[in-house]
Amino acid sequence: MRKEGVDRGAITVVDTPRRARVSAVTPATLPTERYKDEGEIARGGTSSVHMIYDKALLRRNAMKVLSSRLDQFADDRQRFIEEAQITGQLDHPNVVPIHELSLTSEGALCFTMKLIEGHTMEEMLDARRHEVRRLDWVAAFLDILIKVCDAVAFAHSRGVIHRDLKPGNIMVGGFGQVYVMDWGLARLVDGHHEVVIGRDRRRQSLDVPGDVLGTVAYMPPEQAYGDHDATDERSDIFALGATLYQILTGQPPYEDEDDDRQIAAARAGSIKPIDQFSTAARMPRALCRIAMKAMSFDPADRYPSASALRDDLFVQLRGGADLPQRTYAAGEVIMEEGEPGDAAYIIVHGTCSASKLVDGQPVDLRIMGPGEVFGETAILSGQPRTATVRALEPLTVQVVSPEELEEAVGMHTGLGQFVRALADRFREVDERVTRLEAEIEARVEDRLMTGRRTPSR
Fold first, then answer.
1. By the 8 A CB rule, do 418 and 409 touch?
2. Distance (Å, rounded) from C-alpha 181 to C-alpha 146?
3. How far is 53 from 49, CA to CA, in rounded Å?
4. Could you confirm whether domain 118-197+209-318 is CATH 1.10.510.10?
5. Cα distance between residue 217 and residue 214, in whole Å
6. Which CATH topology does 325-437 take?
7. Looking at residue 78, what is its pLDDT?
8. By C-alpha distance, which of 378, 311, 264 is closest to 153?
9. Is 1.10.10.10 the CATH number for 25-115?
10. For the whole model, what pTM was predicted?
11. Domain residue spans in the chain?
12. Average pLDDT for 97-116
């Protein structure tokens, strides 16, 4: 079996024999009089999945069976048993329920679980791999990923890290069900006692230093080095970010047919920036930043928890930016007529006045106070400023940049188009009102001048 060594300067291939160890668990044989095997429905590198019919409860379940190729090795048997034990103790709506740990009639290790009818996220993404991302269907994938973050956050709270999170291990049902699957590489974190297994982890370890466990295309550097002691909850957060990366770009962070180049890229954290993908051209920059933050090379720079990552995704999906503030002294100009509109403002404290030039002379438009908004027309329509705004007293405002507006609107493209249409129409009305005011002032002035020139009788 090919294993990756711990030499960090180069990829070292070593052969690590599996160590013989017998689990204390002795599962009973699955009773054939109750369950009917209806055939294989999926197959992976370590196991196959069969559909079985429960004659007592009159329902269909799934049965995962350890490969006969691995059944002879005690370590692989132990991992399979612990997958059932750990998953069975994670009682969460987005973790597939485990029913029974057993043996098939042929003596192979197996466990039964809820049958999930649907598709993996990988299958769903592959169908759109080369498409330019649109906010409407990307939002649907974000909904799925938020549920995955919930499941991962729950597992972490119970002291379990997954270590193989990826779109292929996320099942999506036809009615919004989302399940995190395949906990075969799950590891218990020291200091937690909520989830238990039969093996004494202080004396027996299934992780050989240097062994690369998981899927390289989605794994963080510490996991690519086989540094199991450094692999923790933040390693799962990296994989969640890698899943988001694939949602935004159409491919995982490390995609290479050459195994050595792929693992070298994972160890170096060499990730192509999202903005270099034509497929991600329409994606909000804030959403791209979330993915790259989750995939930071240094674990300390990643999100501190799956819940924190979920919260940022939720803000993007539903809208609601945390706006920065600026202060201005009395008399200071906040924005000037004719300049490019790069921000809008919401008044927090103080007052300011808006004015514009008419025939070269400033004309006061209005005085604004707390809660009022200005500068929104230019930022939404992309046109120059139509007025000058000056602080009348010390002024505090919230600043809304195009990015913050996009973040506040969220993933609702229809709402964004609606807001922009309103802005364009407001600008048209504002220009008509301005022209009308100028015409009225000109007529009044003309009448006044005419009156002055008429001789009195």
1. no
2. 15
3. 13
4. yes
5. 9
6. Jelly Rolls (2.60.120)
7. 93
8. 311
9. no
10. 0.73
11. 25-115, 118-197+209-318, 325-437
12. 94
